[in-house]
Specification:
Length: 507
């Protein structure tokens, strides 16, 4: 009995420490949001100092010896613990190990290189000078390998970096999945490019006043379930989803007066992320058990809404009239069908973030293959631009005229986020599998989308994914929901059916 009470007391201590850490991170979320959205530009230095100070406090709390002792005393296998409690202990130990295994100097070197690297990258991209950025990548590779040897001595350096974003996934497994996508998508995109019939995308051009775009985006975000009493929508340079807590989720977008599709779909994408956060289990908002699972699962939620739902014919059917009324005079030549085709047009381009759902995976695969080769010593940093352009030609049939439009386009490597890119496409595969499972459970789903009744779909996601937090691994979650492992064939089939129809490919 005494032992039982001691165990419970240790657990309570752990919980109060974890809650405090989570609340400090919530404050960090708000000052970072503020920095991107409302902060006056003159405050940037002071804010950087404030963020640094708070990061120091959070780091202290996360590596606190008392927390370590508390974890040592707790054995999560103990029968007295519920699944919920066990998950909190396991997650806290994982985080603590990760934080304490890496020497402080290495953590500081990585952080310093991250802020310097970002500034170097911004300039190198602007001036189209890869050679200025190359030394940053070289330094990062060296530090990241060192970091991997401390944090995950059992994993290869690249797998250790992938694990940060997609726990449990390995580069070998990802390569198998990506090879399967490549084998089908590359020839399929070529076939589409050669097709005589092409959707008329000119119907989407015109002038779209920002206030009207904002009102439409807000309405659609609310329709699909974003709770504005527990969230906000604002403007920032790059769209993102942030906030401090499931009751305070903040999404952003940017507006382009000549292109309403870009900002609307950015809002829908971020709303998908926001619904995941708003849908986390109640009464555990400050504990690890309730947190989102991985980057890939998070991305599955944004892509579920942005692609599987909002780029469907049913969604266009429901919103076409409203869009026409919002922008009178803009869509006189358009029909639901031509609108649907135009927003789904496949156009191989240089820029990943502007890619359609068919060419997007190839942008990701290219980056994954390059990162893998860099970590495994099969590619030297100086050869990066050449290899990048070669792969672009091979996969999409185009060669960027400058490195600014090629190897220098993404910010990820400037902050050391190696291993992040695969999550985008793993998310697309999860989204497709979840969508199919959802249709099995809700046979009326498509007609519900066509009538704007999104509540049953959101409820299904809430129950099956959002509120499950970290109770299962991603591998277990996809198995529970779909009865199958992650399987790219579903995404391939979905894309082939959809695009064959749009481009009138037969046979
Ligand atoms: Zn996203």
């Amino acid at each position: 009995m005494l032992l039982y009470m001691q165990t419970k007391k240790n657990y309570q201590n752990l919980i109060s420490k974890l809650e405090e850490i989570s609340r400090l991170k919530g404050i960090m979320g708000i000052i970072q949001w503020d920095q991107e959205v409302t902060m006056p530009s003159g405050a940037s230095e002071a804010r950087a100092d404030q963020i640094g100070a708070l990061a120091g406090v959070i780091h202290e709390r996360m590596t606190d010896n008392v927390l370590g002792e508390c974890l040592n005393e707790l054995n999560e296998q103990h029968n007295d613990f519920s699944v919920f409690e066990r998950c909190n202990i396991v997650e806290a130990r994982r985080e603590y190990d990760l934080m304490t295994k890496v020497p402080k100097e290495l953590v500081q070197s990585l952080a310093a290189l991250g802020s310097r690297g970002h500034a170097v990258w911004v300039r190198a991209r602007k001036e189209n000078r890869f050679s200025d950025f190359a030394p940053v990548i070289k330094e990062f590779l060296a530090l990241k390998k060192e970091w991997a040897a401390c944090a995950y001595p059992d994993k290869s350096a690249y797998d250790a970096n992938i694990d940060l974003f997609e726990r449990g996934a390995t580069s070998v497994e990802i390569a198998v999945i990506f090879d399967q996508l490549k084998a089908t998508l590359i020839p399929f995109i070529q076939e589409i490019k050669q097709q005589a019939y092409q959707p008329d995308t000119s119907i989407l051009s015109g002038h779209f006043p920002v206030e009207k775009q904002e009102a439409l985006a807000r309405k659609i975000s609310e329709d699909i379930g974003f709770q504005f009493d527990k969230g906000r929508m604002d403007v920032s340079v790059h769209p993102f989803c942030g906030g401090s807590h499931p009751t305070d989720i903040r999404i952003t977008t940017r507006y382009n007066e000549n292109d309403f599709v870009e900002s609307l779909y950015a809002v829908i994408h971020e709303t998908g992320h926001a619904l995941y956060e708003q849908g986390r289990m109640t009464d555990a908002g400050d504990l690890p058990v309730s947190e989102s699972l991985t980057m890939g699962i998070h991305e599955s939620q944004s892509l579920f809404w942005e692609r599987m739902i909002a780029r469907s014919r049913e969604f266009c059917t429901h919103y076409f009239d409203m869009i026409c009324q919002t922008f009178p005079g803009n869509f006189q030549r358009a029909t639901i069908d031509t609108f649907y085709q135009a927003i789904n047009a496949c156009e191989p381009g240089f820029i990943r973030v502007e890619a359609d759902e068919l060419t997007y995976p190839l942008h990701v695969i290219l980056r994954f293959e390059i990162e893998k080769a860099l970590f495994e010593g099969d590619l030297s940093v100086d050869d990066l631009p050449g290899v990048w352009n070669e792969k672009m030609k091979q996969y999409l049939g185009i060669v960027p005229p400058t490195d600014t439009l090629g190897v220098l386009q993404d910010s990820h490597w400037s902050s050391g986020a190696f291993g992040y890119f695969p999550s985008y496409t793993l998310g697309a595969i999860y989204a497709c599998q979840f969508f199919q499972a959802m249709q099995g459970a809700l046979p009326d789903a498509k007609s519900n989308i066509a009538t704007g009744n999104f509540a049953p779909i959101k409820k299904w996601l809430n129950e099956n994914i959002h509120s499950q937090g970290r109770l299962y691994t991603p591998q277990e979650l996809v198995m529970r929901i779909t009865g199958e492992q992650l399987n790219p064939q579903h995404l391939i089939d979905y894309l082939k059916v959809k695009y064959s129809e749009i481009y009138r490919l037969h046979g």
